[in-house]
Specification:
The complex is a heterodimer of chains A (113) and B (868). By secondary structure, chain A is of the alpha+beta class. Chain A is built from four helices and three strands. In chain A, strands 1-3-2 form a three-stranded antiparallel beta sheet. The longest helix of chain A is centred in the C-terminal third of the chain and has 28 residues. The termini of chain A are far apart. Chain B has four domains: 59 residues, no CATH class; 181 residues, no CATH class; 306 residues, no CATH class; 193 residues, no CATH class. In chain B, strands 1, 2, 3, 4, 5, 6, 7, 8, 9 and 10 form a ten-stranded mixed beta sheet that branches. In chain B, strands 13-14-19-16-18-17 form a six-stranded mixed beta barrel. In chain B, strand 6 and strand 7 form a beta hairpin. In chain B, helix 11 runs parallel beside helix 14, helix 17 crosses helix 22 and helix 26 packs antiparallel against helix 27. Chain B starts with a helix and ends with a helix. The chains are: A alpha+beta (113), B alpha+beta (868).
Chain lengths: 113, 868
Amino acid sequence: MKPISASPDLLPGTLDLLVLKILTLGPRHGYAIARRLRQISDAVLEVRQGSLYPALHRLERQGWIRAKWQVSETGREARNYSLSAAGRRQLAKEAAAWERMSDAVKLVLAAAE
Amino acid sequence: MPNRRRLRQELQSHLDLRIAELTAEGMDAASARRVAAVEFGGLAGVEQECHDARRWHRLADFVADTRFALRSLRRTPGFAVAAVLLLGLGIGANAVIFSVVQATLLRPLPYAQDNRLVWVTEVDGQGADQSFSVPDFRDFQSARSVFSSFGGYRDLSLTITAAGRDAQQVPTRIIMSETLETLGVAPARGRMFTARENQPNGPAVVIISDRFWHSYFGADASVVGKALATSRGPLTVVGVMPPGFLFGARVDLWAPYLQYAPALYLSDRANSFILYAVARLKPGISVAAATDSVGALSRNLARDFPKSNATVRAKLMPLREQLTGNVRASLWMVFGAVNLVLLIVCANLANLLLVRAAARQPEMAVRVAIGAGKGRIARQLLAEGLLLAVLGGVAGIVFAMAALPALAAALPANFPILGALTLNRQVLAFSLAVAGAAGLAFSLIPLAFSFHDQLYPTLKQGGRQSSRRRLRAHASLVVIEVALAMTLLAAAGLMLRTMQALNRVALGFDSTQLVTDTVSLSSTAYRTLPARARYFDQLAKQSAALPGVESSALVFPLPFTTQIADCFIAIEGRVPEASAPQTSYYATVNATYFQTMRIPLVAGRTFTPADDATGAPPVVVIDRGLAEKYWHSPAQAVGRRLEMFTQDFGHGTIPPATIVGVVDEVKSEAADKDANLEVYTPLNMANSFMTLVLRMRTRPDPGALAASLHTILRRLDPSLVIPTPHAMGEIVAQSQSIRSQSMVLLEIFAAAALFLAAVGIYGVLSYLVQLRRRELGIRIALGARPARLIREIVTHSLRLTLIGLAAGAGAALVLGRFLATLLYGVTRFDPLTLITVAAVLLASSLAASMVPALRASSADPRSALQAE
């Protein structure tokens, strides 16, 4: 994992969408989310790792994800995040909005050619 | 919210995992730590961001909600201004009345540990107040089972007669030993009375109020030890009470009781010189326990002294209850009324907000569809309601600040305010709480109905349909408003009938065209009875010649003033069994008094000028009550003799007098109180004070009369202070001032309630007609007759009104219980009141529904359909 500072390429709101999506695979702690984020995006989407946490806390505050301190199998205490029902609906909504947006952008790009 | 330690732990565990991963890849520990830290970014910064992500979210939401509410209110300024004003008036009136409640019923009494103070008296078998006899009082004082101290008092007036000053009457409270100790208030200067001073023949001393110290002694620092010249001789000032000390309305002097009680009373258990007790309960003794204990004491006395005490028992109540008893019921009634009005205001606002919420249903549906949480929308609606409440609360406090001084000035003199009437912290806190509760009430109701409706169908239909539930909510709010208004109007109606009944009560004299003026003589020139009689006789004769004056008379004390003169009387031939003296009130009058007051003569004759003359044989006139009590009929009383004993006003002993006539009874305290037994003595017993009574030929104008009276008084004696004349009608009205003022407030609140309920009915019906415009248009297009539509709308309104009236009448009957002590000549079940009030409300509801009904009948089918 490369040390990366801010991520000017990341569209606003995208991080939320990605975090919610990753959590559909099951509960995990912050580090696991950061690693997964990097893996599945083929390292295209770079997030300064520290900036993940304010996002997690904001999502928790909005009720879309839930957090719980748990002891992992290695005996380490970790704060595990999981998706709430509201979060699942939110993901569907944001994903749909994203699709529309990306379709629209594609259309515009195609028409402009 | 995890605390900072937990947050750091979470972030640290991320770093630890990364370091472990990097070392597993072969990096050395130090480099791994450095790389992980760089990748992560500043730990402290991230920590703060996490923290802010939570807190700022909340605050930002709040700010956003408030701004949203402001924007949405600004879009409809008419609604916003009306709502804030309405609420402001409601809350303002509430704050004003509450400040009076607080200053009267809730603020601590100005005594140490005031909740342990009780007031005690003795009542007879019928429960009529008798007050303590001195021997009974002493037995209670020495019984130390429940009271840690036991004091007593009676009110009278002392005449101050300093040379070179006008004589003045000063309200005085004579007190038993232990009284100031019981209240726990010590003099600011000087001392309390000593044991020797509390004896019947002790040194003549007095304690003065801070107010009197300033007004009479000019706050002289060396006042203690100085003499105060009174009609009873000089009294040495031994103490000055601290400012704000309050024991007795406007009392300025306190003197030892036993020095004033005639010797006869000191050992007589059957009669009281009037003595009420104020006692302090021992710590841990409840009022109930004390009541049991005084009951036992009374039973012991009844056993030991069956002749005098067989049916006498002590009655005890918290001191505050006794002090504020005359206003408690009125005040709670008015406070209840103002809260009912506020509830109607809330119901109206809830109705308006419900309409707004319905109008915004499509907007809300859209916002839910694009992802705003229902919680967020609910918060926004709530923010709007609370913003209105806060604005209304501020408007209310501004209104109350303007209105409170006016109310304070209008309060009757006998209103027991404990200190200043201000919008203090408690009142402000209460008003803000009321505003908040009101805001919650009228914003939660629309909220409750906003989310039960299906949002998506709403969206499809363009928000035209309103759910059945919501319509029922509107109807319920109208019913509630009508019920509240009915309750309030019924109470107001009963009070109105009470005042009418009181005005019809025969007072025993005709007050309509009387003007009165109390003249006080300075002591030097008028120390002797003949000198006083001469002066007053001249005054009566000269004022009778004034233009517009039909006749002129003199009296003291004048009925319906706070001054009383009581004596006890011994009736010739009624010895020895009834040797115990009987008490009576008495008044000194001149020969023209009965004719001027139009008090009818029942038997014998009234006074003649010859009776008024100095040295004339002693005669009295008595009233019918006294005659019937001792001689069974007025005619039999004429020619009998009685003897009066009084030390009031420096009369000293009065020789036995022949009863020459009997006149009808006169109410002397209040219309709803029985007439007192009364003895009238002629002018040769004149006080230093007499009240001039003038019967005018036309409606009296005391202002116009003042100048001509002034001339006469100046001519008679230029050294006297000229007092202000008052219309007798006003003096009589003042005796009911607490009741009549609370009635006026109640009428105002009832009128407000009626208006608000009518506005509510009008608003809801207009809205319903608006909603049904399409349906009504279609029906008109299909040939429905307008009259039928009008009937339909009006019937709907009347149905709601009738339900409200029934509920309100029920509430009025139940709540009427609390009015019982305020009513006179009418009961809470008075059908005339209830029916009249219901008819008024029904008529208002009919009027309020006519406009919407007419609008419905004239709905244009075309435009109604095109509006789609």
